[in-house]
Amino acid sequence: MPPVEALTGLTEPAWREMLTRCCGASHWVDGMLVLRPFSTDTALMKAADQVWAGTGESDWLEAFTHYPKIGDRDSRRQKFASTAEWASHEQSGASAANEAVLTALSDGNLNYEAKFGFIFIVCATGKSADEMLALLQARLPNDRATELQIAAGEQHKITLLRLEKWLQS
Description:
Helices cover 69% and strands 0% of the residues. It is mainly alpha-helical. The protein folds into two domains: 3-56, no CATH class; 63-161, UraD-like.
């Protein structure tokens, strides 16, 4: 039985909760709920792409608020408890970082947020802290419009990875 079939019996509130864990944009979650039920995993993932394509800046900014800052262990444990396990795995490269890299990530996050008005979003899965820091530093010179598009793309990658994790659980 495909994993998505096991999810067909979930109530709408249960779907909403899990979809929100994958992506915090309420417009995206509502769009996904309208398209249920999904016949296959592929149909679910295709719907995720389709609904994301219909989102815009306000949706992206809302989604970004559902993530801890890269390397911020305290907020990951407190504010983001419902996704802490996923975020911890996604950001595992930051867990092994030395203090100098963590400090540079923290400082970079502050500069990034001050410049763009939202936190640094990167699909951190498989990336070391040094790689994430290099990406943050490389993206800091961008203008806001460019950076917002990049961050939205990273957000969508994270959403798809989280949907895959959900299907595998």
